[in-house]
Specification:
Blueprint: E1 3-7, E2 12-19, E3 22-30, H1 35-50, E4 59-63, H2 69-86, E5 90-93, H3 95-100, E6 109-117, E7 120-129, E8 132-143, H4 144-154, E9 158-161, H5 163-167, H6 169-175, E10 179-180, H7 188-200, H8 219-231
Parallel strand pairs: 1-4, 4-5, 6-9, 9-10
Antiparallel strand pairs: 1-2, 2-3, 6-7, 7-8
């Protein structure tokens, strides 16, 4: 089964093709917040380079977040549109899972950290188990000092990975001694690999069942709520 993977939850746009042979094509570019301009041409490019037509695809996988609201929406909308047009099933994978997966052989606690802006980060924690990683702290959002407090509470060697870990490197290392990985963004390569494993177990869903993982309200919703509360009760 050929899988198209679409990942747009952070500053990077990442598209991959793969299946039982692993990842056979990967395209990644980080050009600010130009996801809508880059994504469709990226899909066309990788299919052309791999000499694969969209009609040969068997499944669409997408990063469901958490991450940047606009980027996530672009990826989800495109992935759903393709799946509906081609009548394909879908698999959604968390951006935190995608960041952790390449470090599945680490003997440290793997801590994916995504920059949530506004001085906050999205994060979770994983540990190595036979066959992969197990999530030991569920996904959450909060200020960096909450992340540091959780690291201190576990009191285990940790590997932090992601753009949030890089942006707040000083704050994290001031509070807890750990390693900060060079990897900044989730990738569609691991997305295809994880989706393939789920596809073998037939753990796919329809496009209508794919839901984004926000962990906090979109900024526009927060702004409207703040504006409404500042007006006070109607008289």
């Amino acid at each position: 089964m050929l899988i198209l993977g679409i990942e747009t939850a952070t500053e990077q746009v990442s598209v991959a093709l793969g299946g039982h042979e692993g990842v056979i094509g990967l395209f990644e570019v980080a050009r600010g917040r130009r996801h809508a301009e880059i994504l469709a041409p990226a899909i066309d490019f990788i299919c052309e380079q791999a000499d694969i037509g969209l009609d040969e695809l068997g499944l669409v996988a997408v990063d469901v977040g958490p991450g940047l609201f606009t980027g996530m929406r672009v990826g989800l909308a495109t992935a759903k549109a393709l799946a509906l047009a081609l009548r394909l099933p879908m698999i959604g994978i968390s951006s935190l899972d995608l960041l952790a997966f390449p470090h599945r052989r680490s003997d440290r606690v793997v801590v994916p950290v995504v920059d949530a802006r506004k001085g906050e980060v999205f994060y979770a924690m994983y540990r190595q188990v036979p066959g992969g990683l197990q999530q030991v702290v569920e996904p959450r959002v909060g200020p960096v000092d909450e992340l540091v407090a959780d690291l201190l509470a576990r009191s285990q060697e940790a590997l932090c990975v992601g753009d949030g870990a890089q942006r707040y490197r000083t704050e994290i290392l001031d509070g807890f001694h750990c390693e900060i990985a060079d990897q900044a963004h989730p990738s569609a390569g691991p997305l295809v690999q994880l989706a393939h494993a789920k596809a073998l177990r037939e753990e796919w869903v329809s496009a209508s069942e794919i839901r984004p993982v926000y962990l906090r309200q979109p900024d526009a919703q927060i702004n409207w709520a703040t504006r409404a509360s500042s007006k006070g009760p109607a008289r």
